[in-house]
């Protein structure tokens, strides 16, 4: 069961960052709600990593590989912490104006650093050759990011559809 600790830590960091960014404090209700809503993200990362792991040499066991792979998510942990602290420390007006920019810079920095960390993980711990490590990182990112985007799209579309009557009322001035 050691392979579950680091994905749960990732989920906790996601939930804490969301709670801080949204309310400026830790709220248990928001932590639990966010953890439930985002529980698929660590699972997606584990599945995307598993595809890469099982297609090549496996010098370490799967549980150890998952555990050490999630150790490499520190750039994302750092970015989420910065985003959460920005949301907690900035006034709502400042946060609204700058949140997208701060999130984009933190996300881009985390992406660049994490690609390097993942490549080093593939070449070092998994013993893959450099070209194969590039392919591993590309495949893992393609699977992980596509699945994550689809997850958010599927979960967001019903919520957006429920806004249609309100949008129509605002545009046309009448309630349906």
Brief overview:
With 176 residues, the chain is mainly α. It has one domain.
Calculate the terminal CA-CA distance, rounded to whole Å.
53 Å
How much is the average pLDDT? Answer: 85
Shape: globular
Low-confidence stretches: none
Gyration radius, in Å: 19 Å
Strand fraction: under 5%
Oligomer: single chain
Characterization of the model:
With 176 residues, this protein is mostly helical. It has one domain. It has helices at residues 5-23, 28-37, 40-53, 62-71, 74-89, 92-124, 130-162, 164-172. Helix 1 runs antiparallel to helix 3 (40-53), helix 1 runs parallel beside helix 5 and helix 5 runs antiparallel to helix 6 (92-124). 23% of the residues are buried.
Q: Secondary structure elements and their pairing?
A:
Elements: H1 5-23, H2 28-37, H3 40-53, H4 62-71, H5 74-89, H6 92-124, H7 130-162, H8 164-172
